[in-house]
Write a structure and sequence with these properties.
The protein has 175 residues and is of the alpha+beta class. It contains six helices and five strands; from the N terminus they run αααβαββββαα. Strands 1-5-4-3-2 form a five-stranded antiparallel beta sheet.
């Protein structure tokens, strides 16, 4: 009887750990899911379904065009984002949900156009993750990309050569 109880207890612990692993991994990754959830709950918005997005992501993971190793995309169309929240409060809520590993890179708020743009950056091992959030009156977009940092630096330093760099041509002559 004792052996059965011990095996049952070990099995229960195993099942608990396995079922908690996806939630733990999602919480550790942070970023994209938190921002999308925040938009969905704050605005009661629903994402627009994009056909073949999963296949595109598989292509990106294999081909790595322009140094992009993976991406996530959520688009909200024909929603009522007409009244943006208090900019300071919204930014604070977003940044607290992202965690301290994400750092603001670009922050733009246009009061006359009622548009909000935020770009955050995070180190991810040997890679860099960028998270872009835009909210306008009728649509919002959240994009997270994982990039090769060497190509990102080349893009930033030489935007006129972006096309060549994006094609994965690492031997681009930069004067």
């Amino acid at each position: 009887m004792r052996l059965q109880n011990k095996v049952a207890l070990q099995f229960l612990i195993f099942i608990t750990v396995i079922s908690a692993a996806p939630a733990t991994a999602a919480a550790m990754d942070g970023g994209f899911n938190e921002i999308v959830h925040h938009i969905e709950s704050y605005y009661h918005a629903k994402r627009t379904r994009i056909p073949f997005l999963g296949m595109a992501n598989l292509f990106v993971k294999g081909a790595r065009p322009g140094g992009v190793k993976e991406f996530k995309l959520a688009v909200f169309e024909d929603q009522d984002f007409g009244i943006l929240p208090d900019n300071a409060r919204f930014t604070s809520d977003i940044e607290s949900s992202l965690g301290s590993e994400w750092h603001p890179l670009v922050q733009v708020y246009s009061h006359p156009q009622n548009e909000l743009t935020r770009i955050y950056v995070k180190e991810d091992g040997t890679d860099v993750k960028l998270l872009l959030l835009t909210i306008e009156a009728r649509e919002a977009t959240v994009i997270q990309v994982k990039l090769d940092p060497e190509l990102l630096v080349q893009w930033l330093n030489h935007p006129d050569k972006m096309g060549d760099i994006s094609k994965g041509n690492r031997s681009v002559t930069i004067d």
